[in-house]
């Protein structure tokens, strides 16, 4: 089972690399503002999780430089479970007005990114 999942994961990564979406281009000043805003976001994710790949593709499409956090690493996993509530990726950590919010579900995350940055 592990080996099948591993192989599927590699296929997903390969297809994702071959069919990488085109990055949105913005004027430099506008991109700098977006980069500043996305510093307050982190995506807890696994490299080969299809739902995480879906979110990363949207990030690329919109040219959003969001910090990726590997939730396989024990320390990151523990923080995700303790603060967000459960071990599920992707999960977007949003820091805003001194508060931290955690957003689960790839479709919800994509909607949030589209609404805020598209
Ligand atoms: N409906 C969720 C599904 C997410 C999901 O199933 N993620 C898997 C990884 S692909 C997960 O977090 N599993 C828990 C684990 O690995 O322990 C979404 O669209 O984000």
Helix content: 40-55%
| Rg | 15 Å
Spans with pLDDT under 50 lasting ≥5 residues? none
Order of helices and strands: HHEHEHEEH
The kinds of small molecule bound in this structure are: glutathione
Supply the CATH superfamily name: Glutaredoxin
Query: What can be said about the biggest beta sheet?
Result: 4 strands, mixed
Explain what this protein looks like in three dimensions.
With 118 residues, the protein is α+β, with helices and mostly antiparallel strands. The protein has one domain (2-21, 28-117): Glutaredoxin (3-Layer(aba) Sandwich), CATH 3.40.30.10. It is built from five helices and four strands, in the order H-H-E-H-E-H-E-E-H. It has a four-stranded mixed sheet. Strand 3 (91-96) and strand 4 form a beta hairpin. Helix 3 (50-61) packs parallel to helix 5. The chain is flat and about 45 Å long. The N and C termini lie far apart (39 Å). Residues 46, 49, 51, 87-90, 105-106 line the site of glutathione (GSH). Glutathione (GSH) binds at residues 46, 49, 51, 87-90, 105-106.
Which labels suit this protein?
single chain, 118 residues, alpha+beta, Glutaredoxin, 4-stranded mixed sheet, 5 helices, 4 strands, flat, binds glutathione
Summarize the SSE layout with pairings.
Elements: H1 2-18, H2 28-38, E1 41-45, H3 50-61, E2 67-70, H4 74-84, E3 91-96, E4 99-104, H5 106-117
Parallel strand pairs: 1-2
Antiparallel strand pairs: 1-3, 3-4
Helix pairs in contact: 3-5
């Amino acid at each position: 089972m592990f080996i099948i999942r591993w192989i599927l994961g590699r296929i997903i990564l390969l297809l994702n690399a071959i069919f990488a979406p085109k990055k949105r281009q913005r004027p430099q000043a506008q991109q700098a503002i977006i980069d500043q805003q996305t510093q307050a976001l982190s995506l807890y994710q696994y490299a080969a999780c299809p739902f995480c790949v879906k979110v990363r593709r949207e990030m690329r499409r919109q040219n959003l430089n969001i910090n990726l956090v590997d939730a396989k690493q024990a320390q990151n996993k523990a923080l995700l479970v303790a603060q967000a509530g459960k071990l599920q990726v992707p999960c977007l950590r949003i820091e805003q007005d001194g508060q931290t919010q955690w957003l689960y579900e790839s479709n919800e995350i994509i909607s949030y990114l589209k609404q805020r940055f598209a």
